[in-house]
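Structure (tokenized):
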């Protein structure tokens, strides 16, 4: 039996949600690894409208996006939190690293740095420009090495990344407390 367009579309939606959940779980894992607070994490939700299953986008201010981890600036301020430059870069690149969690090796070229990860890449690039100069290496090399470090951290905590991904797929939105509970369980 040949798959129908509906079946192919359903499969596309599920694959897209899985990739988005892995991406956002990558960002979340770095925060949990470093013991840093955030508000919540959310991915697109699949909804049915007039019998057709579609994705309901996450709103970031007025823009729609596939996934989003919201920071808790008040908690950061009251708890005196900070993140070193290297950790900021790793956290920014952890989304694409999360998409590659099943790979045996991290592949810098495989990341779609033009697509939804463009914001992550630009953030990492802005921060890494000075850090690369201080380290005495080229910016691209610095970013590539930071990406591989993010991937290694995620691979070391793969069970936790998988659990966060599964929870996101099941609920579409997780609070910080729910993420911490998942982190502590494994």
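Design, position by position:
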């Amino acid at each position: 039996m040949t798959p129908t367009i509906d079946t192919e579309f359903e499969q596309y939606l599920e694959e897209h949600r899985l990739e988005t959940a892995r991406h956002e779980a990558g960002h979340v894992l770095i925060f949990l690894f470093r013991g840093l607070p955030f508000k919540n994490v959310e991915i697109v939700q699949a909804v049915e409208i007039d019998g057709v299953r579609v994705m309901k986008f996450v709103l970031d201010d007025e823009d729609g996006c596939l996934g989003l981890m919201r920071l808790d600036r008040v908690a950061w301020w009251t708890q005196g939190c900070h993140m070193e430059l290297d950790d900021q870069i790793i956290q920014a690149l952890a989304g694409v690293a999360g998409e590659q969690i099943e790979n045996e090796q991290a592949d810098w070229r495989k990341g779609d740095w033009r697509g939804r990860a463009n914001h992550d890449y630009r953030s990492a690039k802005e921060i890494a420009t000075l850090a690369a100069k201080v380290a005495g290496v080229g910016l691209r090399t610095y970013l590539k090495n930071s990406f591989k470090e993010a991937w290694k951290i995620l691979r070391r905590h793969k069970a936790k990344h998988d659990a966060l991904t599964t929870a996101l797929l099941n609920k579409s939105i997780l609070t910080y407390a729910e993420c911490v509970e998942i982190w502590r369980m494994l």
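Reviewer-requested clarification: Residues 5-33 form the longest helix (29 residues). Residues 5-185 form a domain with the Methane Monooxygenase Hydroxylase; Chain G, domain 1 fold (CATH 1.20.58).
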